[in-house]
Amino acid sequence: MLKLKYKAMSANVFRFYRGTCHLFYEDLSVADILPASPVTWICGDLHIENFGSFKGDNRQEYFDLNDFDEALLAPASWELLRMLTSIFIAFDSLELSEEEALKTAQLFLNSYSSTLKNGKAISIDPRTAQGIVHTFLATVEKRKQKELLKKRTQGKKSKLTLLLDNERHFKVNEPLKTELANFIDDTMQNSKHACYEYKVQDCIFRLAGTGSVGVKRYLFLMKSMNTKNKYLLLEMKQALRSSLHPYIKIRQPGWGSEAERIIAIQERMQNMSPALLSPVVFKNEPYVLKQMQPTEDKINFELLKYRYNEIDKVINDMAVLTASAQLRSGGRQGSAIIDELIAYGQNNYWHENIIKRVLQYTAKVKNDYKEFIAGYEKGKY
After folding, report:
1. Residue 283, exposed/middle/buried by CB under 10 A (0-12, 13-18, 19+)?
2. Are 288 and 176 in a shared domain?
3. pLDDT digits (tens, 9 = 90+) for 136-178
4. How are the residues of the chain apportioned to helix, strand and coil, as percentages rounded to the nearest 5?
5. Range of 129's domain?
6. 288: closest CA among 35, 63, 67, 7?
7. What is the pLDDT of residues 105-147, one digit of tens each?
8. What is the largest CA-CA distance in the chain?
9. Do 63 and 200 belong to one domain?
10. Closest to 212 in 3D by CA, of 369, 62, 49
């Protein structure tokens, strides 16, 4: 798994940046003092590919922030630095000019501040989306469960199994597979989402993302006992301590587990959270359990190059959603109240300082990547 992670990180500087969230915060902890910013709930690993679509508990599709593994209570500027650096890194990977990246970063900050200043959280669904995001949501909204099953499974309708020739699917040994199946069957019958009619048909280890490659992540094929040829997919991902934890001095709530931390922050930052989202504990380790959906997807930054004339709309949406998540979770367990966030958005004196820090850190990421590649090509990893 570690080899696969390093291979993914070697693809380009953007993939390297995605896989080194811990380095970002280690560097940030020894950087010069940042301009003051309100304390807010942040997802912690905000970059342009950590926005995507999903179906909420109300069965409506949304476009929103969708990765909260690193989420904590932290200065709002930390979220902005992580996101804006991703813009410069992504543009560099797409061979777009630094001048264009700078213009896009300034647009993000202006839209972010404007949303805070208005003091009203905004959500994006197929009815309100525009440009690339509208196309994105319109496409995923039409996907059906059978398409997802076709992509992930093999065999006849009456007896499907999960694909093992998929490069991101790995076999689970039989004793562990039995333990997992029994655990999920019991969990589904006793959770608030109780799906009594479903039983585990198959289970595999699933590889996904870049930074989370190697984290325990299981995919379950669930078969209905009452409805013929009806299936659903569940994913259970190990919840680890946030990469920010060693470097944050702000007091955090006493979560019951890392899974409870992730879900609690996700539910307060998103307008509507995904279906079947719940914390579970398997063999004394916390996991996040959720349904894998045919509508769930992420923005691929490489697509932006081919629809570059619409990139401003995408970045504007991302800025609005970032500010909205902070407004929506404002005043919760130590986070800044809405009035403080409004005041922060009303004055843009800090924009220039943030951009300056982002440009400096972008240069460091590029140098780190060169050093990583030099070692990778020599077989050091």
Report:
1. exposed
2. yes
3. 777 666 666 677 777 788 887 778 888 887 778 899 999 999 9
4. 45, 20, 35
5. 2-139+297-377
6. 67
7. 999 999 999 999 999 999 998 888 887 788 777 766 666 667 7
8. 63
9. no
10. 49
